[in-house]
Amino acid sequence: RAGDGVSRRWLEIRYGRSCQWMLNPTNWVSSFLEKKTVLSAGLIVANSEMVARDMRGAYPRERDKIKVIRNGFDPTRFHPDSSDALECFDLPASSRIILFLGSGWERKGLSHALLFFAELCRRDSAWSEHGVLVVAGKGKSRSYQRKAEGLGVGKQVRFLGTVSSPEDLCRLAELMVLPTS
């Protein structure tokens, strides 16, 4: 299952033309293991057209093995309704929530989500007064919290960490963002 993308493509996005990627042994190991896995796999399942395209670009001889199967969605769990989850997450009843839900925050574009949220708050007083960017999932929040503070929205960004019931957050969100690179 190729859900995290392609190592080579991620290194291009992160490092550009710089050779700095070579200094981190994890980059070497990840790329080696990915290639070994792709070459030995009978079928490669990508969870998006973007990942499939990147896989076909990185491994053109393996292109016939690559199939797209999108992540599942259970409408009985993820549906809009009234929920008392605001209290569970310690958010004011008047909150307008934008949700960033996922792990691998750098790759998933949390920095861009913070910039978007700060700009939205700057342009719209309703968001400035009641907007909350809720960040849920695995990640190290310290640098992102500093960035939010530097953008003037530090008090409006909540880092929840891993949550056991993401469906509650989805019900509360007015908007979900995932500006994946």
Q: How many β-strands, per DSSP? A: 6
Query: Radius of gyration in whole Å, from Cα?
Result: 19 Å
Helical fraction: 40-55%
* Mean pLDDT across every amino acid position: 87
Stretches with pLDDT under 50, minimum 5 residues:
none
Molecular shape: globular
- The neighbouring-strand order within the major sheet is 5-4-3-6
Structure commentary:
The chain has 181 residues and is of the alpha/beta class. It has nine helices and six strands; from the N terminus they run ααβαβαβαααβαβαβ. The protein has helices at 7-15, 25-40, 49-58, 85-88, 105-108, 110-123, 125-130, 142-150, 166-172; strands at residues 44-46, 66-68, 96-101, 131-136, 157-161, 173-176. The strands form two sheets. The protein has a four-stranded parallel beta sheet with strand order 5-4-3-6, with helices on both faces. The protein is globular and about 55 Å long. The protein starts with 6 loop residues before the first helix and ends in a 5-residue tail after the last strand.
